[in-house]
Amino acid sequence: MDFTIDQLMDLKGKRVLIVGGGQGNGEATAHVLATFGANVAILDLELDRAQHVAKDLEARGVSSYAISCDVLVEDQLVKAIEKVDTEFGPLDSMVCIIGMAGWAQITDMTTEIWDLDHQRNLRYFFWAAREFAKRVIARNGKANICALASIDGIRGSAVHASYGAAKAGLIHLAKTMAIEWSGRGIRVNVVAPGSIITPRIPEGTQASEANMNAHVPMVRRGTTTEIAKAVCFFISDLSSFVTGQVLAVDGGYTANGWPGMMESMSRIKVGGTMGVDE
Ligand SMILES: NC(=O)c1ccc[n+]([C@@H]2O[C@H](COP(=O)([O-])OP(=O)(O)OC[C@H]3O[C@@H](n4cnc5c(N)ncnc54)[C@H](O)[C@@H]3O)[C@@H](O)[C@H]2O)c1
After folding, report:
1. Is the distance from CB of 191 to CB of 249 less than 8 angstroms?
2. Of 54, 127, 151, 161, which cross-links 64 as Cys (Cβ 3.0–4.6 Å)?
3. Topology of 9-275 in CATH?
4. CA gap 221, 216 in Å, rounded
């Protein structure tokens, strides 16, 4: 069997919309997709951010498009997707990046925090994917959707109850979309990042960073490019038989059922009775 990279990645001339592509994971995803030849539209609340990324992409020789909208407002989001799909050209894929966490223990959590986390992590994704899918289905197209969840949507996470519940909801919704739309040519998958170094959460800014890294088998935070590469897998033909799946990009964090084991490993006697620590 002999394949070319083009046959496997197949993004040349494809149009991808990145919802929240103005910085961080979205910006990195735009650049990785452009590396494989995709034309990329950037939607962001901050028009100057979207325009800045679009300009960088154009300089790399792909087409780009920048648009501003607030994804918390249904009408704005629906109109923005319609505009990109018409003016930039029929979209082949959409990546939903936007999401943020309110921090509070459940006993302190207000309805405002709860609602905001559901709006900015789950509800906008429902609106965006519904609008995008309706347009793709109407033209009998073929498309991919990829959304960013979080490892907090896979396992419980103290002080992130509203965020985790919304991300778990996103994962569930993506699976249901994958089933409902599999016969309509649309695949839907999710990337669940662990702790990632971003402009919003740069290296060394989290109080518990060293402690947190100690529980990650790869003992570090991830990069936005590492998230982008996973998104690229779902958007490309490399994942042509994959839908409704969640890929944790977390340095092994969610695979590790016994975090304390990392620390004790060096002290465990090989072959010792029950491997008991000295
Ligand atoms: N950084 C991490 O450690 C980490 C960990 C797990 C999951 N995630 C997930 O990654 C995604 C975010 O990644 P990031 O930190 O690179 O993004 P970010 O928070 O920097 O935001 C990306 C872009 O979204 C835009 N945006 C925010 N609210 C908007 C709105 N209402 N309408 C339109 N645009 C809006 C911002 O202007 C920004 O340019 C989220 O889904 C987050 O839950 C991040």
Report:
1. yes
2. 54
3. Rossmann fold (3.40.50)
4. 8
Domain ranges (residues) in the chain: 9-275
Tokens of 202: 């740069």
Catalytic site positions: 163
Residue-wise pLDDT tens digits, 124-180: 999 999 999 999 999 999 999 999 999 999 999 999 999 999 999 999 999 999 999
> 18 pLDDT exceeds 90?
yes
**What helix, strand, coil percent values describe the chain, rounded to 5?**
50, 15, 35
Calpha distance 11→231 (Å, rounded): 13
Report CA(99)–ligand 1 centroid distance (Å).
5
pLDDT tens for 63-75 read: 999 999 999 999 9
70: Cβ below 6 Å to ligand 1? Answer: yes
* Residue minimizing CA distance to atom 41 of ligand 1: 99
Return d(Cα 121, Cα 99) in angstroms, integer.
Answer: 5
Instruction: Give me the amino acid identity at 29.
Output: T
DSSP state of 268: B
Q: Report the share of the chain in percent with pLDDT over 90.
A: 82
Note the residue count of the chain: 278
Question: Is pTM beyond 0.90 here?
Answer: yes
Amino acid at 74: E
* First and final C-alpha spacing in the chain: 53
CA distance 256 to 260: 9
Contact 90, 105 (CB under 8 A): no
